[in-house]
């Protein structure tokens, strides 16, 4: 089903592209939320991701990697925003909850916030989005063994947090 939508979107079918984005917007939101706290920043990053995806969807060679490709664009957008942030001093951070997360998701995010930043995205992609370790390695541009070891270390850290 996704492969057909992707092919149609690659042939400039705007409706197919919109349908794809609707289908993946929750996953994009969750990934952005693991990097960013501000709802405004998350919205900006998601908007930039959709724009980048629309402009470059014809460059996607293998439709089975669409979600990986889209997530990679989002992560790069988040990192770009964070890099820009480091250049400026922010006087206050605005946070609101325009998107109401289900209770289970909220608990998951509260739990992974206990992890160091290098583990959060891996946990989100692995447990939250169901990506395999090889796919995560591709998305984050790290070695697959690094992903596996960070999953293991992250689990150990969460055990420590939960036991205290």
Return the CATH class of the largest domain.
Mainly Alpha
Q: Looking at CATH, which topology of the largest domain would you report?
A: Rna Polymerase Sigma Factor, Chain: A
Largest sheet: none
The named CATH superfamily of the largest domain: RNA polymerase sigma factor, region 2, helix turn helix motif
Number of domains: 2
What is the CATH architecture assignment of the largest domain?
Answer: Orthogonal Bundle
Question: Short description, anyone?
Answer:
With 164 residues, this protein is mostly helical.
What does this structure look like?
By secondary structure, the protein is mainly alpha-helical. It folds into two domains: 1-100, RNA polymerase sigma factor, region 2, helix turn helix motif (Rna Polymerase Sigma Factor, Chain: A); 101-164, Winged helix-like DNA-binding domain superfamily/Winged helix DNA-binding domain (Arc Repressor Mutant, subunit A, Orthogonal Bundle), CATH 1.10.10. It contains eight helices and no strands. The protein has helices at 2-10, 14-35, 39-56, 66-87, 103-112, 117-128, 133-140, 144-163. Helix 2 (14-35) crosses helix 6, helix 4 (66-87) crosses helix 7 (133-140) and helix 7 (133-140) crosses helix 8. The chain is globular. The protein starts with a helix and ends with a helix.
Features:
single chain, 164 residues, mainly alpha, Rna Polymerase Sigma Factor, Chain: A, Arc Repressor Mutant, subunit A, 2 domains, globular
């Amino acid at each position: 089903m996704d492969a057909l939508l992707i092919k149609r979107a690659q042939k400039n079918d705007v409706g197919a592209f919109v349908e794809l984005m609707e289908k993946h917007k929750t996953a994009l939101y969750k990934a952005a939320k693991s990097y960013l706290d501000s709802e405004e920043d998350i919205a900006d990053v998601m908007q930039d991701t959709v724009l980048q995806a629309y402009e470059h969807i014809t460059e996607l060679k293998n439709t089975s990697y669409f979600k990986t490709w889209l997530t990679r664009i989002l992560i790069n957008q988040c990192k770009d925003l964070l890099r820009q942030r480091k250049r400026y001093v922010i006087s206050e951070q605005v946070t609101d909850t325009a998107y109401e997360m289900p209770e289970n998701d909220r608990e998951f995010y509260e739990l992974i916030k206990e992890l160091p930043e290098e583990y959060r995205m891996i946990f989100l992609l692995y447990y939250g989005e169901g990506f395999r370790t090889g796919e995560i390695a591709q998305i984050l541009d790290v070695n697959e063994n690094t992903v596996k070891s960070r999953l293991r270390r992250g689990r150990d850290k969460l055990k420590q947090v939960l036991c205290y």
